[in-house]
Each structure stands twice: as C-alpha cells, then as structure tokens.
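Everyone, describe these structure tokens:
***
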Amino acid sequence: MPYKKSDSPYWYASYVDARGKRIRRSTGTTDRREAAALEGKWRAEVHQQKKWGASPRYTFEELISKYLAATTSKKSTERDAYAIQALRPYFAGLAIADITGEQVADYKQARLQEVAVGTLIKEMITFSAAINHAKKEWDWRLPNPIAGRIPAQPKGRIRWITPDQAARLVDAARQNKRAPHLADMMLLALHAGLRHRELLNLTWNRVDLEQHLIYLDADDQKNEDVSAVPLNRIATAALRARCGIHKTHVFSYQGKPIFSAKKSFRSACRAAGIDDFTPHDLRHTCASWMVQRGVPLTAVKEVLRHKSIQTTLRYAHLAPENARAAVAALDWPNPEQPESKRA
C-alpha cells in the first residue's frame, strides 16, 4: 500500500522488483487513489517480467547510480555529477521507458529559465551518455528519450577587452582584500592564456620559473595533451608574487586551495565598469591581443593549446592587415605607378 514520508507531500510505493530488490519510489501524486493505482501498475509489470520475461523497467536513480559508479575514472566525473544533480528534480522516480518527449521538452524549457543553453546541452549529453552506456555495457533494453532532442551548440562567443580595460580590471582586483590572489590570477590568464580551471589546479611542481614555463599533463587540460606553456615577463612576475604563500598550490586563500574565483571576478568587473565578461574571456583576450599584434595564427594555436586550427581561426578577423596584404598583391599594374615605370 502507498505510504507517505514526513518530508514530502507525495505518496510513495514500495514493492520488490523482478530481481528481488526492494524498490521505494515516489508516485509523484498527492492523491492516494492515484498512488495506489500506480503501485498496482508497477507490481503488475514486475509480474510480467517474472512470468513472461518482459524487460525490467529501470528507473532514473538505478541508471544514474550505476553509471556514476562505473565511470569514476572519467575526467568529467565531477562535471557529470553536477549535471545529474540538475536532472534529478525533473526525472527522479521515473522509469526511463516512461519518460516522454513532452517531459523532456518541459525540462528544457524550465532549465533555460535558469541556465545558458551550453549548460543545458551538457546536462542532456550526460543523461544520454548514461543511457547509451547502459545499453552497450550492461545490455539494458532502454529507449533513449534524449536522443535527437539535444539543442544545437551555440556558436563560440569571443569577448575581449583592451589593454586599458585590462589594467583597470587588474587594479580593481588588487583593491579586493578578500581575494588577494585575484590580480595575479588575471595576469597569468591574460599573458599565458591559461583556462580558469587550469589556474585553480595549478601546483608549484608544474612551474619552472628559471625556464619561464608551466608544464601541464594530460589530466591538467581540456585537450588531454602534454604541454609546456611559455611565460612572458608579466606572467613570470605574477607567479613570483605567489611564491611562499602555499606549499603546493599557486593560488590559495587563507591556507587552502581555491575552488572558484568567479564571485570575486564579477566584483572586480563591476568595480572596473566592464560588463558581460567572464574568467574565460581573459583567455580570449590573450588570443586577441596576440593576433592584433601580428602573431601568426599557428603560433597562437600553440600558445593556447588548441587541438585544431579551426578553433584558432575564430580570431582571424582581428588581423585585417593580413587580408589587406593579400589583396595588395593583386594590385598589378599599380594604377598609381607612372606609365613609364610599368614597362
């Protein structure tokens, strides 16, 4: 019979599945009769599975818990866990086979009121990957209600600031006494192109101040390659300013490694009068400055550690002089050249 929990308005069902496991799940309704009907339906499905070998009806919780346990070695495990936390309020208690396109659409609409489309895409990819993993590795017979419903990835956003704006931003960061690490973190991002997560995870055993290099292993960076990041004079000075503050981590606060600097970063942006700017945009700014100063795109690719030159080409429009030089080569004969010199 359905029962209630003290912390929930909904009725819960309890029954033993075809594998002999006790299942306790929310019916999602406050109506006792409706809850009893649902419990009866689920018990009937178990009977069909036992008697006629019907496929088990795996729930969202069963899928997710087993998937996370099986993929602990993945680099994205932490990110997957965050995505699943966002999915849980919408799909907890549901059998995967019962999730409809309408429910997926409702979830998408609700989430887009709270997060950017990129975050929604990551959540849906995680859910779809868990289903596909279960089908491939455990032979679970499951539909994939997410497949074909993931929004298209938005075009890459490139936001950069001028050197004068960057100077204002770094100065604002230096005024923030609650984040004494922030200014040096910004300088290292602006002059070495490190990602926000790479900065937070940076340890002193990766830093070679004598050779002016930072060494990153496959686990340290997004492209999963081994790289050496060159440091200019300003980036090296920012690192030297951090020496002796923490034994292992370059960036710390009150003796502990930092897990996020986004809140203090937003405060510095407000103080500097810079809108619509994120920590990752410091990396965009680094790339933009190099291109604007004539650095070849192939060299920019190496500094930023892009896997493909296609990613670097997003900054090509910032070097119009290259295009001017190309079309200037077609100026023959030169209309401004005297006729006597054209022969």
The first helix runs from residue 32 to 52. The mean pLDDT is 87. DSSP finds 14 helices and eight strands in the chain.
